[in-house]
Amino acid sequence: MTATLALKVEGLTKQFRGTTALDSVYLEIQPGEIVALIGPSGCGKSTFLRCLTWLEQPDDGFIEVAGQPFGRERIGAVVRRQSGREIDRIRPRIGLVFQQLNLWPHLTALENIVRPQIVVLKRPREEATRRARDLLARLGLADRAERYPHSLSGGQKQRVAIARALAMDPALMLFDEPTSALDPELVGEVLAVLRQLAEAGTTMLVVTHEIGFAANVADRIAFMDHGRIVEEGPARQLIDAPRDPRLKGFLDLVLSHRDGPAPPLA
Amino acid sequence: MKFNFEYLLSVMPRLIDASLVNIRLALIIMALSVLLGTGLTILRAAKLPVVNEVIAVVISFVRGTPLLIQIFIAYYVLPSVGLDMRPEVAGVAAIAFNSMIFVSETLRGGLATIDPGQIEASTALGLPPRAIWYKVVLPQLFRRVIPVLINEATIVVKGTALLSVITVVEVLRTAQQISAASYRPFETLLGAALIFLVMNLVISLVGKFAEARYAVSRA
Question: Number of folded domains in chain A?
Fold first, then answer.
């Protein structure tokens, strides 16, 4: 396959004061693919997302976004760390939706989506506004554009955060536990939005506890434990026939907390 | 000597004229102290090793000594190291420096209330550090500290009265000159006090409007 990968991660390593948070992680994501990243808490999933966006500087390893080296690049045998400015320029190619959403409370929903386009991508205001309104309409929030974040529901805020990231035309969207900060009745709403994005061909890496979502919507699942991706494969296959004993244990634990089998979400 | 209301009224026009000096100086001082205080806050947030320790020493000096002494230093001591300033300039410099420290301390306190997640989100979207300060942090910070800044503005206005001791002819000095000639300190000083009261009531009123205006978007 010669198509440019949306994301290529090689040997990503991160240590915090002696403890290894990420232990040489390899991952490739094709354009349009949806990968779910699962694993017990503390296994390094969040650190992985933070390193992918260079919010944490990985100690070692390489990241490529849509064929473009990010953070570190190899020039022959020499490894060069990119400058803050270079990193900032590539950052919008990866859209990160935080667990806590982190909308700007002093700006309306519309401005939350418009401002970064103007400041970072230097788009004219009219174009940025048009894109923002399109996205809000697509996500069913056309009538909430002028609201401030504190007057939006959790699910609405989440959709604004998604729109804010999408407006930057990312090659890849990262989601950090998109459902865990929400009230249970909103989980379905957010999963529906993710499914909608999936149908539109958005490339996504989703850190999730929703095994049901992982099984039904994701193309592939990667299971992480102790800072390593221990097993990865097609979603259904990985859940129905896990090979790694740790993955088996994890799935048993997660699925036993439900009453019976996971309900189909579609 | 009996209090003479007529006399009080008769000195008011001169005092009101003199108040233009206080208003002008207070505006310059507030503009300088907000500007410099913001800059100082950004500098301190960069957490440069030696710089913050030097700033800490300066802060403890400014906070721990009377403003009046700081004004004297600016006017009488600085010329000996080659900084010879006109009374107004020395006075503005002294009060602005003092006020800058308080503005910076206020902003630093407010900084702790800005959710670091917002800054991470901005970083992840590719906003450069400058834009994060100007578009994300400072707009929210100033909304939060408006009440404290209003308070600081009233302190600055009252502080301009201290400049009478370094020969700036403002409201208090004018009042002193009038009373020295007429032997009627009661009316003239009361008149001067009334002028400061009115100026500060206006500031409080502006502050109320500003707070109401920005309360809408507060999280």
Answer: 1
